[in-house]
Amino acid sequence: MKLQNIRLAVDAIIFGFSEGNLYVLLIQQKFGTNKLQWALPGGLVQNEETLNEAVLRELAEETGVKINYLEQLYTFGDKLDRDHRNRVVSVAYFGLVDSSKIIVKPDTDALHAEWIALDEIPKLAFDHNQMVKLAFQRLQNKLTYQPIGFDLLPKEFQFSELENLYCTILHREIDRRNFRKKILSFGIIEETDKILLKGAGRPSRLFRFNKKKYRELEKEGIIFEI
Amino acid sequence: MKLQNIRLAVDAIIFGFSEGNLYVLLIQQKFGTNKLQWALPGGLVQNEETLNEAVLRELAEETGVKINYLEQLYTFGDKLDRDHRNRVVSVAYFGLVDSSKIIVKPDTDALHAEWIALDEIPKLAFDHNQMVKLAFQRLQNKLTYQPIGFDLLPKEFQFSELENLYCTILHREIDRRNFRKKILSFGIIEETDKILLKGAGRPSRLFRFNKKKYRELEKEGIIFEI
Predict the structure, then answer these.
(1) Which positions ≥6 away from B153 have C-beta within 8 Å?
(2) Residue B132 pLDDT > 80
(3) CB pair distance less than 8 Å for A46 and B4
C-alpha cells in the first residue's frame, strides 16, 4: 500500500442567536487560494492535540471566540478533492452560543470574523456550505428533543424570546399556548424575580433554564419533545 | 507547524440479530502487535478511496461481508495513543444486518471472523470496546424513533420476532398489545399471505416492512416513536 497522504483538519460551525435571527460565525481568509472567500473557522490538527483541542484552538485563533465544548457533527471525507491542494478529511464540530455576549476578534490569519445571518450566507470555501446545512439540520432535530435552545439565549430571558427562537429555527409557527404549557410542565425553566420593563409594552417576566432539573429528567429517561 | 503525522483509519461495528440475540461482527488478527486479540474489522484509508469505500472494502476483505451502506457513527481522535505504533484517528461506522443471511469468510489478514454475542464481547484491541458501546447506544436511541430494526430481520418475519428484537435491544419488556397496535397503525409493516407452521405451536402470520410507506411518512415529518 502507498504511504498515506491525507491531511486531517477540523472545522467549527458556531450558531448564534440575536434579536430573533440565527447567525453563523464565519471568517474571511487573508492568505491562500481562497483569499477573501468566506469560510468556517478551522484548520489542520496538530500532532500532539486532540481533535477537540484542535477545533477550540482554531476557533479561538481565528475568531477570538473561546468556548468550552463543541459537539462532533460529522467527518467529511467522501469528496476526495474538497481541498484542491491536498486530500484533506475534516471533522466538523458544532456549537451554540448567545451571540450578543460573544465578542468576535479575528487574529492575524483572518481578515474578518463575523456573524452572518443564516439566510445570507454566501458561497463558502471548500464544502463549507454543506457543513452549515448539515449542522442546521442537526440543530433543528435536536431542538425538538433536547433543550439545547437555551445555549443560544442569555442566562435570563423573556418567554417570548424562547418562543421566537423555536419559530425561527424550526421555520414554522408554534402553538404558543401549548408550547408554554409544555415547557413549564417539564419544570426545566423557572421564573426569576425580575421583570423587564420594555418602553410602552407590557412588563415581561424573566426566566432562566434549570439545568439541574433537566439532568434529573434525563436520568429518568424522560424525553423532552416539542 | 510540524508536518502532520497522523494516520486516518476506518472501523466498522456491524450488528446482527439471530434467534433473539444481538451479535457484533469481530475479527481476530493473524499478524501485528494485537495478534490473536479480537478487534473490529477496519484499517487505514487509501489515498484514492472515500471513507465510505474504505470501510466497505475493509469489511469485505476481513470478514467477507458485503453490504452497501454503513452509517457514520463518530470519529475517535481524542486519545492520542489509542494505537501505540502511530497516532491514528479512526472514523467509526455502524451497520445492521440479518446475521442469519450473512456468511462470514475471513480472508488472509484475519485468522477468524465471527459473530460474537454483545454480552460476551472480550477485551478488544485499541479503543474498540468503546466504539461498540457507543454504537449500541446509537442503535438503542435510533430504534425508538426510526424503524431501523427491520434491517436486522429477515425480509419476512413473525410479529413476535419484531417484539423480541425491541425487547432485546432496549433491555426492557414492552407492552406487547400497545406495541402491536402502534406499529400496525403506522402502516409501515404489512401482512404477507404466508403463514408459518411451527411444530406444535400456533401457526404464525408472516409480515414484511413497507419501506415506501415509511418514506412517505418521513416526508410528511411524522415521527415514529415507540
Answers:
(1) B17, B98, B161, B162, B165, B209
(2) yes
(3) yes
Closest CA to A99 of A114, A110, A112, A111: A114
CATH architecture of residue range(s) B7-144:
Alpha-Beta Complex (3.90)
- The confidence band for B194, taking pLDDT boundaries of 50, 70 and 90, is very high
Q: What cell was used for A123? A: 458561497
- CATH 2.40.50.100 describes domain B155-219: no
CA separation for the pair B2, B7 (Å, rounded): 15
Q: How many whole angstroms separate alpha carbon A165 and alpha carbon A116?
A: 17
Cell numbers describing residue A26: 464565519
Question: Does residue B2 sit at the A interface (CB-CB below 8 Å)?
Answer: yes
pTM: 0.89
- Whether A77 and B91 lie within 8 Å, measured CB to CB: yes
Any chain A CB within 8 A of the CB of B50?
A: yes
Confidence of residue A173 (pLDDT cuts 50, 70, 90): confident
Q: What is the ipTM of this complex?
A: 0.87
Q: What CATH code would you report for A147-219?
A: 1.10.10.10
Q: Choose between A12 and A32: higher pLDDT.
A: A12
pLDDT at residue A141, rounded to an integer: 87
What are the residue boundaries of the structural domains of chain B, listed by start? 7-144, 155-219
What residues of chain A lie within 8 A of the CB of B4, using their CB?
7-8, 44-47
- Contact of B181 with chain A, judged by CB distance below 8 Å, is answered with no
Question: Are residues B203 and B197 in contact, defined by beta-carbon separation less than 8 angstroms?
Answer: yes
pLDDT at B109: 61
Q: Burial, B14: exposed, middle or buried (Cβ in 10 Å; 0-12, 13-18, 19+)?
A: buried
Phi first, then psi: give them for residue B100, nearest 5 degrees: -70, -20
pLDDT given at position A82: 87
Rounded to an integer, the average pLDDT of A194-199 is 84
